[in-house]
């Protein structure tokens, strides 16, 4: 079974109930100078971990083929580990 949603119907409903619409900034259409002024007002916003922290917590494992042919033990993928 496949269900397809018409998102245009829901976007109109969401716009009607957006109480903060006037407060939203359209950063895609801001000039470079306006973006610099905004940065001065709100400061630096961190969007993630630095590379050193990521590498420190990343588990590295060399892949090796199981020659015995045993498929009983499922090995977690690199995302699930």
UniProtKB/TrEMBL annotation:
Highest taxon in the source lineage: Eukaryota
Keyword Zinc-finger included in the entry's annotation: yes
UniProt keyword Zinc present: yes
Catalytic activity: S-ubiquitinyl-[E2 ubiquitin-conjugating enzyme]-L-cysteine + [acceptor protein]-L-lysine = [E2 ubiquitin-conjugating enzyme]-L-cysteine + N(6)-ubiquitinyl-[acceptor protein]-L-lysine
Alphabetical keyword list: Metal-binding, Transferase, Ubl conjugation pathway, Zinc, Zinc-finger
A molecular-function term among this protein's GO annotations: zinc ion binding
Designated name of the protein: RING-type E3 ubiquitin transferase
InterPro entries, sorted: MBR1/2-like
Main EC class the enzyme belongs to: transferase
EC number(s) on file: 2.3.2.27
